[in-house]
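Predict structure. Chain length: 358.
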Amino acid sequence: MANQETGTGASRVFFLNSADATSNLSGASLTTDYIFIPDESIVVPPHHTILMSIHHTQIPYSFYNFQLNRNCKLDYSLTAYDTGASGDTGSITLEEGNYNASSLLSAITTALNAESNVGTLTMRFNRDTLKYEYQWVPDAGAGYKRLTLRIASGNNASTNCRNEMGFNSNKFIDGVSSYDVWIENNGTNLRGGYSTSDGTSTTLFDTTTTPNATYWDGDNTAEDKNYFSVVDMNASIRSLYIRTNLTQHSVLDSSIGGGFSSILARIPIDVQSGGIITISPSDGSVHKLMLKIREITFFQLRLTDQQNRIIDLNGLDWDISLQFDFIEKPALVVPKDKRQQIDDNIYQKFKEEKESKK
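Prediction complete.
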């Protein structure tokens, strides 16, 4: 019986499990970039075209939002009062995992305060403003009075947790992201601000109030109210993207200038960590992609974040099934009157050339 939507026979569904494929990367634990070569190729008849869609997928939520090579580093610098940073004094590394706003600030302060000569950095999460607030008391015997978080110019600037701390480019200092953040305390004043890569420093907060009773949240003056952004624990991974070698002529992607992309589908993360992210047949085949290829000899699949970075499922495998519907290509028929017009034009051109040769 023909499919009413496509006018062809029943769909073909191809089931894939990453455990049956060959990893495209070194390390058996990375199951999210692989190639599978089927025993039988899928051949498209000359008079047909394929509509492809995801039929079903199950992905274990075993990956971390905080990953070592993405957002687990934080460089810092210790200097004298009113003195900008000239390099990294040290760096901390957060353990990989899935933090919330409270556990993240605890992890940062615990690791940073354990560093030599840092003193005591205190952070708290303001649930009304959804922002972190900072206070710092230097080590009395170390002689340092300024702590700079080198989130823009440190050695690990590309892999720190600046976005999750609230310093993302959408809100941080009018959208500029190339600034470091500092806080200093000379026993009388608690000040805070930012500094650029050339050493220029701007003070945003200055108080003569007892430092132990004052937290710097950037909200003390009107111009500073957007200094911190909303803390977003999922700034690194908001959605998953399934990419394949089959979609080069079907999907457009704004992140590459609107050009054709390898994205097959965006998978929203709608479960808690430890759960299973699922697309079922009831919603998987809503979006169909038309493929121009004539023969499918292998499948290459990648599971990435929005920045096309491979997701690590920590060794667990995942399933996906692809649905193929075959539709007949419409015959290209030139209307009779149009064909007659073309013939008349050809004849007229022939007559003109003949006359010109006399």
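Summary: The chain is about 15% helix and 35% strand.
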